[in-house]
Amino acid sequence: MNAPFPSTTQNPSTSDPRVPLQLLIAAPRGFCAGVDRAIEIVERALEKYGAPVYVRHEIVHNRYVVDSLKAKGAIFVEELDEVPDDVPVVFSAHGVPKSVPAEADRRKLLYVDATCPLVSKVHRQAERQIEKGQHILFIGHEGHPEVIGTMGQVPEGRITLVETVEDVATLPFSQEDDLSYLTQTTLSVDDTADIIEALEARYPQIVAPKAEDICYATSNRQAAVKIIAPKCDLVLVIGAPNSSNSLRLVEVAERLGTDARLIQRADEIEPEWLEGVGTMGLTAGASAPEKLVREVVDRLSEWRLVQEEPIAAAEENMVFKLPRQLTD
Predict the structure, then answer these.
(1) Which is catalytic among the residues 40, 146, 212, 316?
(2) Domain limits of the chain?
(3) Residues within the annotated binding site for dimethylallyl diphosphate?
(4) Is 182 a residue whose pLDDT tops 50?
(5) What's domain 20-31+216-312's architecture?
(6) Which of 10, 56, 126, 146 places its Cα 20 to 30 Å from the Cα of 243?
(7) What span, in angstroms and rounded, lies between the C-alpha atoms of 225 and 227?
(8) 114-129, pLDDT tens digit by residue?
(9) Mean pLDDT over residues 228-255, rounded?
(10) pLDDT at 10
(11) Which CATH architecture has domain 33-113?
């Protein structure tokens, strides 16, 4: 059982439904344009080619989304060698190393690439930096699919992963080396700024990308949490434990001194969490559908009188085109 959180307000009881719970709901939250596009790609592939359609890796990091697509006929696998020769396969929104589509071409597989266009932009930048003879310092989290995909865009030995400020001090390069940097799209804005500052201090010659790599959706969701967290006793973040952007939202709240919890579904919430909580924040990572937000509101309403207040940090209207093979 989870321990109650300390209170910064009077001590509301969970047993009295008349006691109001101020619920600050962050905006933007939930699905971003890249996630919308990736899910629609799988759905359209199922409509066009029929079930089953294989998907290499989770299309996005959300169990509810994955299970919904499974029910429609999608089959999720981790590697291409698990895909039969006579069925279509979709590559996830996180992107894949160049070796994956090359192997698909060799096997003459029908494949659809659902890589987020903002991740693809980083891939293209990596190729250009290599063409200029630069060694890439890539800021990201080891083992994340996006990192594996981006590092797999360039020849081995031409890119080095940097995870922390401390890593910068151990890099084996000098100020004579031709260096550039790129970043994973779903990182902490503040952490990444610190790492970039350390890189530029040690390597004044390092070349920055033409535009920030952290995607608009990641930045906007973190900005919204920065607004609501100082006003809250507790922040709930809806997202998967393997979702980088969702984990960063938890970290943002905690760094502002507010308790935060990552949940996947409303049924994970315990009534004890509301002890001493007068104001709660609620947001969702970029892979979490709005349906899960409403589930959380409904569950909280079982115990308290919920007073919703939307808090907006930005307005999003980004839309990405679908692959031509699914629209012809």
Answers:
(1) 146
(2) 20-31+216-312, 33-113, 118-213
(3) 61, 94, 144, 243-245, 287
(4) yes
(5) 3-Layer(aba) Sandwich (3.40)
(6) 126
(7) 5
(8) 999 999 999 999 999 9
(9) 97
(10) 45
(11) 3-Layer(aba) Sandwich (3.40)
**What does DSSP say about strands 234-238 and 20-27: parallel, antiparallel, or unpaired?**
unpaired
Question: Based on C-alpha coordinates, what's the Rg of the chain?
Answer: 22
Instruction: Provide the pLDDT confidence category of residue 2 given band limits of 50, 70 and 90.
Output: very low
Does residue 43 have an active-site annotation?
no
The domain made up of 118-213 is a member of CATH 3.40.50.150: no
DSSP bridge partners of 113:
91
In the block, which residue shows the tokens 């943002």?
252
| Residue positions forming the annotated binding site | 32, 61, 94, 116, 144, 185, 215, 243-245, 287
The mean pLDDT of 97-106, rounded to a whole number, is 97
Flag whether pLDDT at 12 surpasses 70: no
Average pLDDT over residues 143-166: 97
From the annotation, which residues make up the binding site for isopentenyl diphosphate? Answer: 61, 94, 144, 243-245, 287
Rounded to whole angstroms, how far apart are CA atoms 34 and 286?
9
Summarize the annotated binding site for [4Fe-4S] cluster as residue ranges: 32, 116, 215
The pLDDT of residue 18 is 67
The predicted model scores a pTM of 0.91
Using an 8 Å Cβ cutoff, are 320 and 33 in contact?
A: yes
